[in-house]
């Protein structure tokens, strides 16, 4: 597929509408939204952050954010999986420790076949690795290659992924910890369909089991010894994540806002004799929502323009997500019962936007880090 380097505003609007037409169906079934990814592949958007010299779109952060916002406004589950695709390709093609042949292989798979990749990190026993600890997933070194065994939960995209970047540790005396690259067709992989969440249901974030899975030794693509650990994300990758992840939920809030505006202009109670939009209290609610979305736009625009330092990345994620949740909550309060009816999209938007809270970093981590930094500065 020829990558869509710079999709126009009208093209992105059409994409939003096409994805929105599938959103309710996939939310109810909680199945992987294959139709949506077939559409994105036809537009060349699954390889949008693959470097141009490898056939991709070579998109920068600003361009990637525009696409993520348009996709997520139509279907945020599709948008979240696409965020992971974009982040993993950006990281792989900038990392010095990835073998060149593997970088080229995942790039070719994305360009030619629309292959998806994501990192599988969370485990049943440990939980999120961002709070410390070593993975229970172990790669045993053998003459044939690594033998990988372990379980991963909350594996976003599971059924639709071609490549799993599995966070694990080696069985060496000084373990190597990091990402082991596994192709989905490798024997020993099974998916347990246990994802049944309130929102973002079509992300298919199921549990994935690896039982003595054999991979080549050079598929330990981003590992480091426990006695000399490397940071998982450099400052640029951290900024990409802190922009694209909350952009998904900001787009949900935009969709909720548009639904409410349409509802208020169309709903004309017989005792009022005019649309609800004529009442000052509803006008004020729309104004509050638009102000929250304006704040989000300003925050995200500033970040992609390079005006946000890396140490503020967590605060950026927290602020945009919190504003999105408040905006959708205001829309539900204004709509009343129709806002919570499964016949209307606003109910789905409300469930989806609440999922922004669970993404790393969570609020307590963001506020603790900001507080420690402020106090350390004063003490210094």
TrEMBL record:
Residues 252-360 form the Acyl-CoA dehydrogenase C-terminal domain. Residues 17-85 form the Acyl-CoA dehydrogenase/oxidase N-terminal domain. The keyword Oxidoreductase applies. SUPFAM superfamilies: Acyl-CoA dehydrogenase C-terminal domain-like, Acyl-CoA dehydrogenase NM domain-like. Gene3D superfamilies: Acyl-CoA dehydrogenase/oxidase, N-terminal domain (1.10.540.10), Butyryl-CoA Dehydrogenase, subunit A, domain 2 (2.40.110.10), Butyryl-CoA Dehydrogenase, subunit A, domain 3 (1.20.140.10). Keywords: Flavoprotein, Oxidoreductase. Residues 123-213 form the Acyl-CoA oxidase/dehydrogenase middle domain. CDD domains: ACAD. The keyword Oxidoreductase applies. This is Acyl-CoA dehydrogenase. It comes from Pseudomonas parafulva.
